[in-house]
Amino acid sequence: MALHPTALVKLLPLAVLIPGAYFGRGQISLLDDDLRIILDSLPYLLCLGVVLMSLQFQRGRLLLAAISVAVFYWVVQSYLQTSLNRNTDALRAYLALSFALPVMALYLLLLPERGIWNLQGLIAALGFILLGLACIELGPWILGINDAAISYTPNLNDVYMLSKSASILAGLTALVGVVLLCIRNEEIEAALLGAILPVYIALAFLHVEYISVSMCIAASLSLAWGLLRSSYSMAYRDELTGLPGRRALNERLKMLGKSYSIAMIDVDRFKRFNDTYGHEVGDEVLKLVASRVRSIKGGGTAYRYGGEEFCVVFPRKTVEATLEPIEKIRDGIASYNMSIRNRSKRPARMKEGSRLRGATRLGSDQVSITISAGVAARSPEHPDPDSVLSEADKMLYKAKRRGRNRVAYAS
């Protein structure tokens, strides 16, 4: 299980949203009554927008999160605009929220994305609703009878209102979210964390003026941003390798200047490798090659072109400037010994397996992968990206005709 610490960069929008929402609330009192009414309704409108977009893009977890933020805001506005010391119903609502927030957030974080209009998605939504009802109905009662062991009584006389136990539970939920973000490296996890933290702040500092409206706006904006980012990744990023896909490449080619080089890279004898070891192992090969191509130096950006082909765009680079970084990638892949775990896909006869293998056999469970590459640059003969791409493809097959595991380029 690989970890992606760089996924934490996806949380950077929170560094803008939350402080902006907190300090921006101080300006709400300066608005006239009509604008204030609109602002009070803004969390509902933003959450409705997220719900509609989630339905469009089949994002069940974000849909449930948006509904939850809207319900949270409604409860705060309807029941918690009073003293908790003097109102038993308000205190019960506060206890229910302080318990439901981390529990339901944990459910959404752990839940794999199943879509909406299918049996798994509907079961996930039903489970979320039942969990929410259980937290609302049983939470205050459970917390009340366990006060001697675990105190969830809010700190009504302090600046920070949540109890220590409720804070620990919320902190553990956030920690789980961070770990899952580093494991899954997906925008939805970052969006969910971006919604949990503002709602938690609103609950912990409920006595602060306009805190609920400002933080719920921040939470809904985080969900909207995560939805847009995940939709972009779905459209422009290859799901298997994580590289930008063909659509992203086409967009990039439109923005190239007058000087650039393009490299086409292909895994040697990939079809035979797939036939010998199976598609699961073939997918691992593509992931391996993608991870190496992604790290290419020299200012190149890697894309998955399709199948076992990859494309690297070098803006403002000549062919000569690209050869060294491409050779390093080729040599690094050729010298890497890949372990084969899918033994059930091997041919029964060793001699037949050796004949079919498209990769070099090293041992009983290791093979070596090779790639070939072709490079071309913009020139009077190839004045546009499509013609350069076509020339690079011709050079790729020239490298294959010369014996594979090599780089050919247009001089």
UniProtKB/TrEMBL annotation:
Keywords: Membrane, Transmembrane, Transmembrane helix. It catalyses: 2 GTP = 3',3'-c-di-GMP + 2 diphosphate. Residues 258-411 form the GGDEF domain. SMART domains: GGDEF. Its EC number is 2.7.7.65. The chain crosses the membrane at residues 7-25, 37-55, 62-80, 92-110, 122-145, 165-183, 190-206, 212-228. It holds the Pfam family GGDEF. It comes from the Bacteria. InterPro entries: Diguanylate_Cyclase (IPR050469), GGDEF_dom (IPR000160), Nucleotide_cyclase (IPR029787), Rev_trsase/Diguanyl_cyclase (IPR043128). Signal peptide: none annotated. It is an enzyme of class 2 (transferase). This is diguanylate cyclase. It comes from Candidatus Marimicrobium litorale.
